[in-house]
Write a structure and sequence with these properties.
heterodimer; A: 69 residues; mainly alpha; 2 domains; 74% helix; 0% strand; B: 148 residues; 6 helices
Amino acid sequence: MPPIPTRAITIAGFAVAVAAMFVLEILARRPGSRIPTVGQWLGYLMRPKIGRALVLAGWWWLGWHYFAR
Amino acid sequence: MATNPAQARSDQTGRWQVARPRRPAHLALLALIFGGLAVYAWMVAAAAPFSRGALVGVVIPGAVVGIIASFRPPERIPPPAELDMMGMSYWMILLAAFFEWEASAWRDNSWPWHPSFTNLIDPLMGPHLVKTAAVLLWMLAGWALVRR
């Protein structure tokens, strides 16, 4: 059997992590779920002003990182 | 016994939001704003990486969101009073795994064999239409955050 290249393992790791986040969000939206949705935990983090500023700064950084660089 | 459908919907404990009926004028305004954002996203996506145009293209939405959040915040969606720690731990595990994977790729600095998430995303955003959609999604996410 040929060895699995490191690149494929890396890509698979990212794919699994991102897919698991989508699954978790779907599970969080079921009635009676104890898992918070992304919006809920981000909203919780954004209750204090510093949390709000940091989350918005993170959002802006993502835009700069992916669209301006 | 007859039940009010709207009341029944509001009694559901799920978190899928049910769209409220909107007036035609409101829908037209939303369509106009969405169209304007799509045109802006198209222009930003056309800017060359590391150019002044690309930088200005992301600075303007950031400034707009920052000003709105600071001085004219819209009606906010109330955050939960507390989070279930067990439920939140699932998110923490996934986020930690993702960032650990990303950090190891960044540390190795061997792009072909252990690419970072950015290395993988960049080629996907090559087509102009895909990059436009990504910029539009980013701006809508900014607005969603302002409402939180």
